[in-house]
Amino acid sequence: MFIEVCKSKIHRVTVTGADLQYVGSITIDEELMIAANLLENEKVQVVNINNGERLDTYVIRGEKGSGEIILNGPAARKAAVGDVVIIVSYATIDFEEAKTFKPRMIFPDTLTNKLI
User: What is the H or E stretch that residue 31 is in?
Assistant: First the structure.
């Protein structure tokens, strides 16, 4: 049997941009991607602390060290610049493996989106 578990989490980062005209996705600072074990094009769920919106999209690699968190395309309607979001990815793994699996969770500085 397989179950879906939390694989990676970036807890409480601030949205730095919203580009409605972009094709779609979320741009994440590469430094945060590496720390959270996220890959470019990986599916993520974005949860907006400010308004309760939730959306699924995919990751685009942002400039390393920039602190950028940019919602692109239709996702830009789900958050405003300055909103705080949580970014989560999930993995489907074997039930027995799930019992000992440890997700990668990071807690950047919410004001700067930099690793602490």
Answer: helix 30-36
